[in-house]
Amino acid sequence: MMRLRACWRLLRVVWHILVGLGTIVLVFPRLSPDKRHARIQAWALEMLACIAITLVVKGSPPAIGPMLLVANHISWLDIVVVHAARHCRFVSKDEVGRWPLVATLANAAGTLYITRESRRDAMRLVHQMAHCLRDGDVLGIFPEGTTGDGSTLLPFHGNLLQAAILADAPVQPVALQFVDGSSGAISFAPCYVGDDTLLQSLWRTLCADNVQAVVQFGTPELAQGRDRRAWASDLRTTITNLRS
Q1: What is the DSSP letter of 117?
Q2: In the predicted model, is pLDDT for residue 193 greater than 90?
Q3: Reported confidence tier of residue 120, pLDDT bands at 50, 70, 90
Q4: In the sheet that 171-180 helps form, which strands lie side by side, from edge to edge?
Q5: Which residue of 9, 59, 139, 236 has the smallest Cβ count within 10 Å?
């Protein structure tokens, strides 16, 4: 029964992705940016429903920008979870922009891309992010740079926080957790870390029941004289405390 249920959920996921692609091609050209954002948030909520994950939002998402959301990173599912709570423009590695189907979805969501190995490209992205923040956008980053297992946080890299400093824009810490809805214990089903493959993580997620995606929005803050490294360290502490 568990395998049959997982297969049914997988079919729903595939269909939902196809519907999303159709919406991007046929509907998005006629929509204003605000209406596109609303469609993306609704699509993300429905995607979570397809895989039987319940969204729990705590705190207050930003009503308007500019805002840089800074979150811990656990799973390939994190972007969907955050979009379901509050649409934002995420920063992603440039290879995502070359993945079939995924790139279409990411581009429609306004994703910004970075070549991780290039210091020059990092500077380009920082200035692009600062420009977007000055224009009132809501952006999102994962300063750990990779996924953890959900039990602890990896060190935060502060490079991209320089965009908020340049634009004098606020940063809002966001704590992500996947928990068992019955016990409240951490659920490792959606984790994508170590030797996990994407297919293994996806199948484990499809097989799991009663998983909640908890998104805790903290209090927005300004740099207040901190450099990016000090600010990154303080944000890591804040997000750790939000998860406790």
Answers
A1: T
A2: no
A3: confident
A4: 53-58, 211-217, 171-180, 67-71, 138-141, 89-93, 112-114
A5: 59
